[in-house]
Amino acid sequence: MTRHHPDSLSLMEYSAGNLSEPHALCIRLHLDKCPHCRSRVDTLDSLGAVMMEEQPKVSVSESMFDDILARISTEPASEPVTPSLPKVGVLQKLLGEDLNSLPWKRQLGDVSVLDISEKFPDQKEQVVLQKLAAGGKAPAHTHRGEETTIVLQGAFADQKGVFNQWDFVVLTDQDEHKPVAVGCEDCITLSVLSAPVKLTGTFTRFLNPFLR
């Protein structure tokens, strides 16, 4: 499980333009407020440009990824750069209105959802916004595939820790959790799922056949 920041491979794939549009959006939103990850991507972009100029035909070896990471660790950290486009602008462009004014649909207990997969045509993943009411709890669940999530508003906690606004987390079928919204506002997240979640609670597990 990746917590709080995208892992090195994800940043490398983002820099290379190899991620799907929904996954790239999650990382872009995180980068806008994370100077550390933004610096790493800037370094990857620079290295990629040099490699393209000096070696038009690059032979990819098994050690290339490790070599690039080693070069990143020795690069001096760049000064934080003011984002050219604030996160709220990206979200408003995608959704057309404020997060709290969206047509949320109550799912289970304190959880409301809004499926926005249609905004990403030709993508295989399901893209959903999820809102957990302030102080509320989500049902215990695991994942049938991979779920990439970024916190857009508020914060949530589970047995792995606390995830605040703009934190990034990737969960797999090896992760089971029961998120709780912390703080005084609703927790809103954007998630990209390769497969539906799997409820694991004593009673809620009977609802699994009805989950998309």
From TrEMBL:
ChrR-like cupin domain segment(s): 99-190
Pfam families xrefs: Cupin_7 (PF12973)
SUPFAM superfamilies: RmlC-like cupins (SSF51182)
Taxonomic superkingdom: Bacteria
Stored InterPro entries: Anti-sigma_ChrR, Anti_sigma_zinc_sf, ChrR-like_cupin_dom, RmlC-like_jellyroll, RmlC_Cupin_sf
First and last residue of the signal peptide: none
Coiled-coil regions listed: none
Protein known as: Anti-sigma factor ChrR
Organism: Marinobacter santoriniensis NKSG1
